[in-house]
Amino acid sequence: MIEQTLSIIKPDGVKKSIIGEIIKTFEENGLKVVAVKMIHMSKREAEGFYAVHQDKPFFQSLTDFMSSGPSVVQVLEGENAIQRNREIMGATDPAKADPGTIRAKHGSSIEVNTVHGSDAPETAETEIAYFFSDLEKFS
Fold it and tell me: E strands along the chain, which residues?
């Protein structure tokens, strides 16, 4: 099934100048970029995006990190894009991520793990709409 998913290259990935490498990894694994832009989330925007985690102990540090510098937000499309993206990213904790995954190669902690990806179709729809209008997506 062809799906779309949100992908974020987090501030650490942008700072390391590995945007192109990450996008190439997605493309080489069958995912097509159908929307992309660089943004710098405010603290309030990061809190809104991660609102589902507002009661968790890591919420403040996560939103501080996500608002600490520019990120690249993109919509990836392809066969089973949500699951495929999650496989390419690797486990949330880079120390537990499979070798060769983006997080294993570039992440440094559970929060500073270079990339974000939607975890379900409903989440993907909400997350994509947070950053992109339909006029910004080119399937």
Answer: 2-9, 32-39, 71-79, 115-117
Catalytic residue among 40, 53, 106, 116: 116
20, 28 in Cβ contact below 8 A?
no
pLDDT digit string (tens) for 23-82?
Answer: 999 999 999 999 999 999 999 999 999 999 999 999 999 999 999 999 999 999 999 999
| 73-112 pLDDT, tens digit each | 999 999 999 999 999 999 999 999 999 999 999 999 998 9
Catalytic annotation present for 116: yes
Q: Work out the burial of residue 83: count CB atoms within 10 Å of its CB; fewer than 13 is exposed, 13-18 middle, 19 or more buried.
A: middle
Residue 76: strand, helix, or coil: strand
